[in-house]
Predict the structure.
Amino acid sequence: MSPRRRHRFDRLPARLALAAAAVLGPVTVARCRGTQEAPAAQPPPPPSGEVRLEPDSPKLAYISVDTVLPRTERVVAVLPAQLVPNEDHTVHVATPVAGRVRTLEVQLGDRVRAGQALARIASSDVAQAQSELLKAEASLTQATTALARARDLYQSTVIALKDLQQAESDEAQARAERDRAAARVKLLGAGSTTVGQEYVLRAPIGGEIVERAINVGAEVRPDNAQTLITISALDTLWLTASAYQRDLASAKKGDKLVFTTDAAPGRRFTATVNYVSNVLDPQTRTATIRAVLPNSDHALRTQVFGEARLLAPDTARVPVVPVEALVTRGSTTVVYVEAAPGRFVRRPVSVGEDDGQVAAITSGLRLGERVVTRGSLLLDADASQSH
């Protein structure tokens, strides 16, 4: 065999090995890649009507969960109501003197403090009262001097006892007249040493000017009971509601009225009943229920109309939830119950009374369970998308 042919046969095994590697190599690599890139097992989807959120899910920031509690009060009547000034903290200011209004110191809506000047009135009654006081003081001085002299003369047996007693009577009468005149001047708030003609009408209480019936130059008199200025402290108001006779059996002192009005949308104001009328209005056939309503922030105004819900104690322990927890799905109402942290289950419920804030649940929930309030619509959207 020639050396060239022998060399060709020597190289044959090496060529066969390369060919086998070329065929088998991709298969081996493909098997290795298939083993390394196999997808991880996915958790099974949650059952229908269930939503699961991971602890780091940003959706949890929009979800609030509350415990189902029993209803302690129930609405027994919804009544038309109106706010009026609290007459226990309202003063209708009149004038004790006759005269002409010289200046006005306040305007409608101003807030005043007790003792603040409201108006200045030019009045001869003030001058007369001051003049009477000065005369009474002079008469008292004269009577006091005469009494002292009578006592000296009586001790010297110059005058009889009846003369001394007459001097004592004159001094007592003069003192009484001086005290009366001084009280009159003090009531008018005038000075007691000089005679003037200005009377200052002052605020007897602190509050807000809610009515004003005088102007500069107007004539005023004390004998016609004219209200010049009305001041009311609006930190509390009277809530007056009109109740039909069928609702009166449920109304008594100490009950609560929850007031809502378009003048303060989204807010509820609680008042305590302090008066239930025993007389029906012959025209409307209704009786007045009155309650004291705190108004420290002055968010409410007088003469505002709205609705008042009369509440009565409830011992039936009916579960209640906020109305925002309810989700309507066709003809069914559902809530989302927190079964575990981050796990929420949809549950149908039957709804009873609904006062616009909370709803009574007649079936489907138990006391102590935790339901989603804020964010229930978000969970319902997720539950609908996953199935």
In short: The first strand starts at residue 50 and ends at 52.
